[in-house]
């Protein structure tokens, strides 16, 4: 019922920044989807398994994968039902398809992903 779509990916040089967005639709019965529920960003690099990147909880606390701490920031806008991942000081190792994720009433929803490529 809930649909997620990521955007904002692209090609940047090492040290650059990108802001990813995750828009939610079909949320009439699930208002404030990203702030009322646990929401996450994941990524999957070529040849690797999908890995967790960042998390935000209904109570506000956030957490990050060790390799992105201090560089990435997860946030959400309740009014627009949009979640963001601000990525600064990007590294080639950050190259991956990035996915947004939210858990609503014990059901998990995923977006189709957006490509982030970081050149050296």
What would you say this structure looks like, in words?
By secondary structure, the protein is an all-beta fold. It is 0% helix and 52% strand. It is built from no helices and eleven strands. The protein has strands spanning 3-7, 10-13, 18-25, 39-44, 51-56, 62-64, 72-77, 82-87, 96-104, 107-110, 114-119. Strands 2, 4, 5, 6, 9, 10 and 11 form a seven-stranded mixed β-sheet that branches.
Return Rg in Å: 14 Å
Average of the residue pLDDT scores:
95
Order of helices and strands: EEEEEEEEEEE
Number of strands: 11
The fraction of residues assigned to DSSP E strands is over 45%
Distance between the termini: 40 Å
What is the count of DSSP helices, taking H or I runs of 4+ residues? 0
Helix/strand structural class = mainly beta
Q: Uncertain spans, ≥5 residues at pLDDT below 50?
A: none
> What spatial form do the alpha-carbon principal axes imply?
globular
Describe the main β-sheet briefly: 7 strands, mixed
Helix fraction bin:
under 10%
């Amino acid at each position: 019922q809930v649909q997620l779509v990521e955007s904002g990916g692209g090609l940047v040089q090492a040290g650059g920044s990108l802001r990813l967005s995750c828009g939610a639709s079909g949320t009439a019965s699930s208002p404030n989807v990203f702030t009322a529920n646990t929401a996450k960003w994941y990524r999957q690099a070529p040849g690797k398994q999908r890995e967790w990147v960042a998390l935000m909880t209904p109570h506000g606390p956030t957490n990050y994968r060790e390799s992105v701490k201090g560089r990435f920031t997860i946030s959400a806008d309740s009014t627009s039902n949009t979640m963001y991942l601000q990525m600064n000081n990007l590294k080639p190792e950050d190259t991956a398809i990035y996915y947004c994720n939210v858990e609503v009433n014990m059901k998990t929803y995923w977006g189709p992903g957006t490509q982030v490529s970081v050149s050296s």
